[in-house]
Write a structure and sequence with these properties.
mainly alpha; two-stranded antiparallel ribbon; 14 helices; 1% strand; metal-binding; 2 domains
């Protein structure tokens, strides 16, 4: 079972049905997105299962093994070009081996992300919106679809939250949200989380899901953003060096690191600007 933790909302469990598909023909495929999401989960949450070469949580370790087997099966059954498939399968086989050997987290994360990048490169999977998401529309969608569980301000205390196991994610939790990219949030919204109250919102359009994902990422900055009148200027400055794809696919930790390569000061404000503003925002 998926552990009751801050990461649960962003974990995709094993789907009951795996649909056959042609990856190259379908740009919006749940099985492919499930593969990517499971690799993200392994990369991020392995430390909850293994530390210093020892299993610290048997259930978590079983999950790592299960998810590793699942992503291998998904790629094995895919219609990827044979050469690409064999390369990715070899990477996933090594990932499974390293998990069995209880290797360090860095090794597991490197292997999982390497396979993830190869899958995205091979399939052309969209990992970013075509245009900047509309945070105002994202807020409207959030009010309509998310407040009953996640609360008005995103703190996980909605009217239906009591008794839910796992509890709805607190989007204001900086330790969690700084590790999550909008792309990861997008996949979770689109796919849902098996075995939890988090349903799929695949009925929303692609644009609407991106609007909602970007809005969720903005929530932890809301209080500070409301008190700062310079954030649009900070957004415009940061947007000169960081593109939309990077903002969509990088976590706050990764985005902050990228900003520090180009700017010597105010990087936290630049990050806040990128998460709370959009082109032409007033």
């Amino acid at each position: 079972m998926i552990r009751n933790s801050l990461y649960t909302f962003f974990t995709v469990g094993v789907l009951l049905c795996i649909f056959s598909y042609n990856v190259m023909a379908s740009k919006d495929d749940s099985s492919l997105r499930t593969t990517i999401h499971l690799l993200d989960y392994i990369s991020r949450d392995y430390t909850a299962a293994v530390q210093n070469g020892q299993v610290i949580d048997e259930a978590e370790f079983a999950e790592m093994q299960e998810f590793s087997d699942k992503v291998y099966l998904l790629i094995e059954e895919s219609d990827l070009p044979q050469d690409n498939k064999l390369l990715i399968l070899s990477q996933l086989k090594e990932l499974g081996k390293q998990i069995e050997n209880k290797s360090p987290h860095k090794s597991i994360s490197t292997l999982a992300q390497k396979a993830r990048r190869e899958i995205i490169k091979t399939t052309g999977l969209k990992t970013a919106p075509l245009i900047w998401p509309d945070l105002k529309n994202g807020k409207s969608l959030y009010v309509q679809n998310c407040t009953s569980c996640h609360g008005v301000n995103g703190s996980g205390d909605g009217r239906l939250a009591a008794g839910l196991k796992p509890a709805p994610t607190n989007f204001l939790n900086a330790n969690l949200m700084q590790e999550i990219s909008p792309f990861q949030a997008y996949n979770t919204i689109k796919l849902g989380v098996e075995g939890t109250a988090m349903q799929s919102f695949a009925t929303l359009s692609d644009k609407e899901i991106w609007d909602l994902a970007f809005y969720i990422k903005s929530l932890r900055f809301t209080t500070q953003a409301d008190q700062n009148t310079e954030l649009q200027q900070k957004f415009d400055l940061a947007n000169n060096t960081v593109n939309l794809e990077e903002v969509a696919t990088l976590s706050d930790v990764e985005l902050l690191k990228s900003l520090r390569n180009d700017y010597s000061a105010d990087t936290e404000l630049l990050l806040m600007g990128l998460r709370t503003q959009f082109p032409g925002d007033n």
